[in-house]
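Supplementary notes for students who missed Thursday's class. We covered one full example, reproduced here. Read the sequence, then the structure, then the short commentary at the end.
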Amino acid sequence: MEKELLCRKVSKVDVAMIQLDAAIRANMQNRDIEAITLAGAAEEIFGAMCRRRGIQNAVEKVSELEVIGWKGDDVKKRISCLNEVRNNLKHADDAVDEFEVTELDPFFMIVLALANAKLLGVAFSVEMENFCVHHNSNNQLR
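Structure (token representation):
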């Protein structure tokens, strides 16, 4: 007897929310590689959805900040810099086999994903709300 394959439809928002919630849980357990990878995937989905809607996403906004003291004026290079750790974790097509991951990298990627979700008007999950409360007593991340 053949087993029937199960199939379900999922939305990009639902996928990104699942990834972001898992990233937040991984971050709370100090599993930095998982947190960055999952939050990066969510950030990428939400960021692409922002671009499709004509909304400047979080990475684009941060790349334009003058206060950071960027080296050079090339926005594409700034965006590449912001995504460097995430991209190193998911690609092996360059010559970089070892790289540094800091304790702020998971936090930063989660915040970018949260910012994109907020830009899209996505309702925050319990995990997303708890992350904001835990990291910001003024609730500026919400």
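Commentary. The two ends are 51 Å apart (CA to CA). The chain has seven helices and no strands. If anything here is unclear, bring it to office hours.
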